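thread: overnight batch results

M.L. [08:02]
morning all. the overnight job finished for the chain we discussed friday. pasting input first so we're all looking at the same thing
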Amino acid sequence: MHYAQTKGMGIIALHGGLDTSREKEYMAVLQEAALLGYGLLAKSRTQALEAVLRALEDSPKFNCGYGSVLNMDGEVEMDAAIVDGPTVRFSAVAAIRNIQNPISVARVLMEKTNEVILAGDGAFKFARQHGFPKVNCISEEQLEAWRKARESLARGETPTQNLFTGLEYRGDTVGCVTWDGSGLAAASSTGGCSLKKPGRVGDTPSLGGGIFASGTSATVCTGVGEAFIETLTAKFIDEKISAGASPQEAVELALKRLYKLKKVEGGILSIDAKGQIGSAFNAGQYPVVVVVDGKLLDRFEPVNIRGSISMH
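M.L. [08:03]
and the structure it wrote out:
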């Protein structure tokens, strides 16, 4: 699970969200996105990360961009963030609507302004001012799932849809970490959780909660966002790695701590300045794809620690 690399090589590690399908058609999109990002890594860490997540935002298979889950009012509100360790820059958009690529808006915010987070209508206006088209991000599949869920609620029943996916399957927040041989960076994008309150913002734009990057590590999280925010899980991982833990040890410790404190499920992907990768989860599925030096790692699988945590 550890892939120490020499100077000059690069790594892209990407996850498709908690409880996302690991079927071939999903993994193929993730693999293609990771390879696309690797091809841009020599130019710019942030450009590579943006390209990776744009590919997932453009696919209706993932809970971000087009295909995001719907909130209680039947609308799509998305969060996205990008953080670069060496430059100590962080930018995010929160509860943005009608923009297919929130991760691109976050990158523009980072590179063209001194602001850190824009939310709601302000984020949408900023995107439009910078040439992003207005797009309806509601997929037919998610709209149908929302209708079914609302009907269940009206009958006093609990919806059968997955909290993270909005569907009977599929995934939560997507995220990517990268190391280009000299620096670490991370990015995430999400539609949030199904049937959330309008205006609800998760852990993606919460630096140290669901995302973090420094000179030591880069981390992205997926799961119940409120729990990651309240426990500062991504920052906790950075502190553990700084103290000598491997990324794998750190993410497993963090998930066990998260469950102990909040009794929730999650998935975490992390990388350190030696090019070592850590990934773990305690839910149903958690697809992770890793590209090292331009090549996909065969049969890379995150560690499922569900069995070592009492889930009751």
